[in-house]
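Kindly inspect this one:
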Amino acid sequence: MFAIVSCLTYQHDLTLVLVAAVLCLASNLGTILFLRSAGRTKGVPRWIWLSVAGAAGGFGIWSTHFVAMLAYDPGIVVGYDRDLTLISLGAAFASTFIAGLAAASLPGSQANIAAGLVFGVGVAAMHFIGMAGLQVPGTVVWDRHLVIAALIISVAMAIWGFALTKNWKGSNWSILAAASALSLGIVLMHFTAMGALSFVEGGGNAIEPQALSKPFLLATILVVSISMLASGISASIIAFRAAKQARASETKFELLVQGVMDYAIYMLDPSGVVTNWNAGAERAKGYTAAEIVGENFARFYSVEDQQKGLPKLALESALANGRFEAEGLRFRKDGSSFWAHVVIQPVYDDSHHLIGYVKITRDITQAKIDGDRIKEVSRNLDLALENMSQGISMFDSNERLILANARYSQLFGFPQDFIRPGLAYSEIVRSGYQIAFGNGDAADSRATDHYRRHMATMRSGQKTLVHQTTNGRSILATFNVLADGGWLTTFEDITERLAREEKIAFMAKHDALTGLPNRPTFNDYLSHQLAIAKRLSSKVAVIGIDLDKFKEINDQMGHVAGDFVLSTLAVRLNGILRDEELVARLGGDEFAAVKRFNDRAELDDFVARLEATLMERMDFEGHQIVPGASVGVAIYPDAGETAETLVANADLAMYRAKHEVGHNVCFYEESMDEASRDRRKLARDLWAAIERDQMYLHYQVQKSVATGKTTGYEVLLRWNHPERGNIPPVDFIPIAEECGAIVPIGEWVLREACREAVSWKDDIKIAVNISPIQIAHANIAELVRSVLQETGLPASRLELEITESSIIVDKSKALVAMRALKQQGVAIAIDDFGTGYSSLETLRSFPFDKIKLDRSFMNEVETSQEAKAVIRSILALGRGLSIPVLAEGVETLSQLELLTSEGCDEAQGYYFGRPARMEQQSVVLNTAA
């Protein structure tokens, strides 16, 4: 002990001893900090920290030793062997590294003992190797007991120091205490070992020239030691702070994870067992952490998915690909399901060993519903786009295609897969023309023109453009410029629509049945020709044409035949036309023609061609038809200077031709105006005739052929004109029908006849003729009901006579009216039977109460066997249908006898008496009575 104290007191520089002690404490403090960091890490980082601890600690301890040796002054010159000095440094480094490895790797007290033993022995070895390199001019003598004591002190203090570290998790004070224990052990070991050293002069090794001097060793040791310790300690402090921050960050992250409520975040071990559980997982799946930790995550899958092994496959996919992501049904604790988005990622330690998986689950049920709805809407939109009758395309501001439907490709003949997003509009146009015209300059030129026209039209604000395709189709393009500079275009094939519009435009100017120009077109053409004639001093003929036998054709052969005549005639008339000639249909059987000419011979030729065409025969279902026509011609400027005047005068001339036998064509004369004015005056007078009490009634008796008894009277209208006297019905009835006066006149006749018949005997009927105009324009059934109610005449005593032509004009309306009359009890007789083409068809259509045989058959019965045969047939038809027959126009006894022999029911005519006022029929009534 004395030797140790003496050595410290008399043989050492205490200042350097203090420096060595401080250096030792600093190096041990750094070593413990480095080893503490190594204990907290694994893998490569641990080896790095252990290496740093070995280097810093070993060099620090070695530096402590040599600083202390530099403080040693034995009274002789000393030196240091370079090789052994370096070997001693290696021993210090190795012992510190191995001790740290043992402390970090072994459990509990084993770590303290193993680390202390290695460290203590290593420090002692470092000391004695270093002392072996001491070069002195003498012999070194060791005290064996003190050497052993130094070794024991070194190991014991090292074990105590490592025990104080408490597995590297103690407080800062425990770290300082451990560093102090290790430092104290090193110092005690050093001075104990130095106390065991003594020198004997003589012998020994001389100091070598390359031996390290004290000043050099001191400077080198201090600089390197301080630098290494400072760097090491700084790194340790930084690492410690980083670790502390990492722990704080981990704590915050854990709190954050636990606070996330919208995501289920939890860890799985490598086999899929749940190891932790956040609040979001509890909220999403209904399990508390206590219920689910330790359970396999497969329970969140359906039974079917578990049987398919999907949970295991998910983990395998995450392990193989670094991530597993999927969507599907997952189940809660209560058995309910939700649509989940799942992410599973493997988690590795520092050695890249799998320690488990992190699993994040998000409830996306509403997003799934919304997404499915969006997909459905998108799918419906796609279906709508692909099934639109219009083509559609959308381009962006760079003229690149965004979308287009299949119809777009169909309209322009593009290949099925050609149109795709990203194509430039100019490229699409060019390809379209190349498809139509082939590759070449012509196609490129057309494409360029099309492109420029399209863009100019769209940018100008025009909304539409019509494209004509090479296959003759018309495509309407409708533009809509978008706010971002792009545009949307719809394409519609309007070929049929244009055709319809052209047809409508044609129909607006032409007659639907014949295709001839109609009245407005005729008027426009006539006005145009008159303007030319005025300018050129030429003439214009206006020709009115009215078919003579058209009514008979309709009545006898039906409307189909009438339409055939009109259509055929139109074709023939169109075929004879030349320049400056036009034929139009004005309506019904009325036609008109216009001819501008200079020479009268030109007009005569045109009229001759018209007349020949109008007289040309037609074949219809085996019948020969010659339509014939009355033609009236008015010439500008002689017959008038305006279109209206010329048309009116042509009508006058045509009317004259119709009433003059043997003249089919008449040219207008001024005298024709007088006849027209006279006809118009009669029409005006007719409207006032009833109010002025100018109308009166005659009655013609109807008799039973078998008994001669009076069965009724037919009422006949008469007009006593104040200036012209009695005007025959054949003259004024047509005028009344033309001007419409027949409606009020017919109502007056019906009312007066019923009022008169009320006073007759109950078995005598009154027969009243009904005009076709009354059936077409008046509610005849309501009128009859009102008159019968007003006059008190029983409906059974009223017989209305209706001609076949009244029914043929509008058969459906006529039949409705007649049925309404029959329901009231009024009798309906068919007048002038046998003169129409459809007489039998008329009888079949309606149950008439009486057939009136036309007077034309009675006029010929005495001279014509055919007339007798017709009469017999009609009478037989009446008997077969149980319809009584009344023969008109009986004027002789022989006619009556024929009717008697053939079984005719009733008759009327001059033989029984001429028509007269009712007061003149009283004798007949009394006689009949």
Remarks:
- The mean pLDDT is 80.
